[in-house]
Amino acid sequence: MRTLVLLAIAGFFAQFVDGSLGMAYGVTSTTLLLLFGTNPAAASATVHLAEIGTTLASGISHWRLGNVDWAVVRRIALPGAIGAFAGATFLSWLSTAAAKPITALILLALGLYILARFTAAGPPSGNLGAPLRRRFLVPVGLFGGFVDATGGGGWGPVGTPALLASGRIEPRKVIGSIDASEFVVTLAASVGFLVGLGTAGINAGWVVALLVSGVIAAPLAAWVVRRVPPRILGSVVGGLIVLTNTRTLLNTEWITLPPAPQVSVYVLVWVLWLGAAAWSVRAYLAERRLGARVSGGAAANSAADSIEAHS
Question: Where, by residue number, does the polypeptide cross the bilayer (predicted)?
Fold first, then answer.
């Protein structure tokens, strides 16, 4: 019962993060499941089965709000599904000993990306432009789907920045299209895991706990994100993912360090994490002060123009 409660909290937190940042549900959930001792393939399979429900709910919500570009979804979903199925079957064939460090490396890389991206530049943003072409979306979908399955998450961290960086689709439709297509990607990954693993290592209760708490968190995240700055949240979550997967790697056969160097690595990660969080807080406060000055200046100019017009 205690494990189910912890998983429900983990699922709620992961969906809260994903709803705030447009990414990181799978990365966060899989990282927490690995901390519970679940093997990498079973952890990724559990998360993807739960995501069938959470991505469906998220996709429907975005569709009803007009945040989905269906041309993008049609072009990226199928390659993403192919990549996810391939990644799921690949991970299922690996032994637990071999899969654990590989998964941890992928999660560590995604965590470093989230930490650096949100600390240095804040939430992703983009500009409107020409339609996205298939020759761009197909490789992004294949790679994003493969990483999503092998790392337990990665569709958002790969797809969202790529679409935003193209400058050809507005941010709200980037998030909505990635979320809507993720349902197809998640479904393909789940089928791949069931083919490769069967039901071995998959706890139905864990899936339900993650699913229910994630669905509950989805609408709440949209409300809470107005009060929790995404830049700060991204730095905090990215640092958590880096720390936990650094710990996983240091406890594998790939890396054998004496206790003293291990402590030094942990201290370095903690310093990096706290420094990034502090930087994000400082940058957010500076941006807010600048915004207040700009708004105040605009209001003063408007008042002056009004007085001049009446004189």
Answer: 76-95, 102-120, 140-165, 177-198, 204-225, 232-250, 265-285
